[in-house]
Amino acid sequence: MKPYLIGDTLRSARFWIQDFDAMRVADMICATKNGDGSPKLVIFQGICRYMNLHSIHRCSHIGTRFDANDFLERGKNGRIVFAGDSICRNQWESLICMLAQGVSNQSTIYEEHGNPITKHKGFLSIKFQEYNLKVQYYRVPYLVIIDRPPQIARRSEGVIRVDKLHRFSDKWIGANVLVFSSGHWWNQDKTLNSGREWNKGGTCNTSREPETDYSKLELEPPNNIMIYEATEQMKSAMRTVNFLNITYLTEFRSDGHPSRNSEPGTPVDAPEDCSHWCLPGVPDTWNELLYAELLRMEFRTRMT
C-alpha cells in the first residue's frame, strides 16, 4: 500500500494538539511548541523541544479520522507488536498516545512489567487494562541475528545473518498485529533535502513548514521495490502481509525532525537528529494509515 497526497492534504484539518502540562507517554518525547512556549499545531513543527515524561496521561486529540475507541474495541484481549529500530519505537509511542484518547481512566494504562520507559530498553509492553490490550515494542534494529566479533579480535567484523530471525522472534508468535520496521538501519546514509547526507553536512533545521516543491523529492529507494516484491510473493503463499510504503508521504516533512532541539544535557556540538520524529507528528499519520488498513481487512480479535 503506497499512500499518495491528493491536493492540499498537507494542510488537512485533522490534527491533535499536545496537552503540554499533562501529557505523559515516554521519557524525553519531543513536544512541539512555538518560540513563546504556546502549543503549536503539529502540522507546522518548526520548533520542538524535549520534555521529561514518565507515565501515560492525558493526550488531546482533535478529529474523527482515527477512532481510538473503535481501535481499542477491535483489539480487545489482543496483542499488537512493533519490532524494529528507534524509528519503529517512534511509531509505537505515537500509537500509545493516540489510543489513550479512548480511555477515560488514564491510570489503567501502564507498562505491565513496571519497567521505566527509557530509550534503551530492549522490550516494553504497555497494557490498556480496560481492554486487556497489550501494545509492545521489541528493539531489533535489523530484525535478524547479528554475530558480534570477539572482543579480543583485532581485524574481525560482526556478521548479519539474514537467514535467521532475532531471538526475540519467539515472543512475537501469537501477536494479532505485527509491525516490522527496520529500514533505517539498512541505509548507509540518510539523505536530506539539502542534497547531502546527515553525517556529511546535511541539515534539517531550516524547514518550518512541509515541503511543497516536488522537484526536491528523491526517487523511490531500490530497497522499497525489493520489499514490495517480497511481500507480494508472501501473499501468493497465502500469508497476510502488507507493505506500508510511507517514504513518499513522509519525505514532505523534513520540518518534523527534532533537529538541534534535543533533550537537556545534549552537547551543543552534537549532530542534528534528522532521523527521528517529534511527537505529536509524522508517525501519527503512519498509524492512521495502519488503522485504515486494519479497517480494510475487517480486523477484530474476536476474543472474549
From TrEMBL:
InterPro entries: TBL, TBL_C. Transmembrane segments: none annotated. GO terms for molecular function: O-acetyltransferase activity. It comes from the Eukaryota. GO terms for cellular component: Golgi apparatus. Pfam families: PC-Esterase. Residues 65-192, 194-292 form the Trichome birefringence-like C-terminal domain. PANTHER family: PROTEIN TRICHOME BIREFRINGENCE-LIKE 9, PROTEIN TRICHOME BIREFRINGENCE-LIKE 9-RELATED. Belongs to the PC-esterase family. TBL subfamily. This is Protein trichome birefringence-like 8.
